Amino acid sequence: MFEEGASNAEIARAVGVCAESVRRWRRVWEEGGVWALRRRAATGRPPKLDDAQVEMVRAALARGARAHGFEADLWTLERVGAVVEQKTGVVLSRASVWRLLTGRLGWSLQRPERRAVERDESEIARWVAHEWPRIKKGP
């Protein structure tokens, strides 16, 4: 669109960005051409775990928390951090463990249902079918 002579406002409307972004892009394009507009690798600190280590952690977590000596088969950030340290020797903060789980492993927050161990589904179904209609008021 730059080569066709479109205005910054036209380009901004066409691609759904603000005109300031288009002005910045145009400046880069004028100085370095189309190649200067290409996406560059992300800057910042590299991840502490490489892809092989992440896969090692994924396999370890797939075995469950009990396989790593925890009482309940429930993963917490602290438990995952302990497994990461045990398997890779890398110590991660809680925030880094969260980013590992949600970003690189694709996990999401899950909370266990709170249910009584003594819960009897058949008795509940019987009560709803027979007792509830008997005591329910109104239609």
UniProtKB/TrEMBL annotation:
Domain called Winged helix-turn helix: residue spans: 72-129
Pfam families named among the record's database cross-references: HTH_29, HTH_33
Protein name, as recorded: Winged helix-turn helix domain-containing protein
Organism for this UniProt entry: Streptomyces antimycoticus
